[in-house]
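Next up, a chain.

===
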Amino acid sequence: MAQEVEYLKQSSQLGNINRPQVAILDFGSQYSHLIARRVRELHVYCELYSCLVTPEELGKHELTAVILSGGPSSVYEEGAPHVAQGVWDIIKERKVPLLGICYGMQELAHVFGGKVAPGLKREYGKASVSRVAGCNSPLFAGLPEEFIMWMSHGDKLHVVPEGFKAVAGTSNADFVAIENLSHQMWGLQFHPEVTHSPLGKEVLKNFVINIAKAKQDWVMTDYANEFIDEVRAKVGPTGHVIGAVSGGVDSTVAAVLMTRAIGDRFHAVLVDNGCLRKDEAAKVLKRMRGDCGVNLRCVDAKERFLGLLKGVTDPERKRKIIGGTFIDIFQEEAKKIEAESGKCDFLLQGTLYPDVIESISYKGPSATIKTHHNVGGLPATMKLKLIEPLRELFKDEVRELGIALGIDEASVWRHPFPGPGLAIRILGEVTPERVAILQEADDIVIEELYKSGHYRMIGQAFVVLLPVKSVGVMGDGRTYENVACVRCVETTDYMTADFYHLPYEVMGTMSSRVINEVRGINRLCYDISSKPPATIEWE
């Protein structure tokens, strides 16, 4: 039996103890990360915790406000998650403003003696919310008497807890917003954080800025300067850092930050696995080494990877071969760098905040909180300490940071590209010939998206080469060539995605160019499936 490899692990919490923050307690809602994003959009720092966070952990931080998220449970059922009494004590003693959303409001009502029970009918979708006559709640300052919000609940509040009063309702529920001004507590049955709630951002702004008086000092230029100071202190005047880069926005921003901090003592490694986009390695070298001054070396391992992929058609085996080979090559390069420059004690990793959220989110009473260890699969035997400059940031904040660092917009707004590269966009066996065909087709599609002005509006776009051939006619001859498919999706979080409604004339230009310019393709399709049920990638 193969021995299980121990991987380099991340901590599951952020280390930013001294920064005042809005704490979001997650009860398992699919929207919890959106609450965090909306608060960050106000330039206010926030962190997300499991609803089972201990008073000791939460008490370490300077709390500007607390937000309780929604969740799938019913507060009155056995085993339902509840905030620890010690956390309620902290909120009371420090007089921290609190906002409960959906399940969070029901938890608030339940704890303070209200009655939560099933409603006669579920309320899911857009609903018209009406303020109570004469209501001047600070939470709704600047909002009209009636407004649209997104509902998603089966239970509802039947009796308002003592000390609270109702400030808004709908035709289905009398108490969809409650407040207790003396305790600085509010509850909302609807979800202000989702885009389906047009005035939801105003409600959150009223709570975070006007009520909680949170400082709007979460600014990316400041963040960059703080990180540079911290990493210089951590690495010291002689320490070295190694990191893998791909040319994507995350690794580019992380590499530029590290270069600003310690210069050539940061050693970036780009591995060309033969499955990159057309001329990608040369473009990344020019952009990162030439334009951004990163100390970058490129390892040409095309033959090594493609040789190992010969005859392999299973997508999981492809991923494992590419991942395992990458680790081997990275370790080989690390030894070379240490021989040339001295010992590397640190590894740069482009972890983002959604990865951290995944490791700390509440997943149900029987679930354990896992430690996220996705650090490129690098084994713990490398004995490296992690440096993760982006682990407090969402993707949109990484882009904002990239702009603040002076990285060109084309690099900052690049679409995500999978680690295995084109190998999982070639369905079936990966061969040098099929890679070359896909590279050409993909290059044309991306070029046309830029020309037509659609690239920035799309979350991810690419071409898939199918293991299918079709009959065609070119000139006076009959052809029997490959079928390819274009995939364009719009998304903000990559958890859900809709196919992008690309105009027919753009599709027509793409089809004409690919079929005429790429030898080996005679039919081009367009993928109109959404996620879920489909995934964004095909493999």
Notes: The chain has a mean pLDDT of 89.
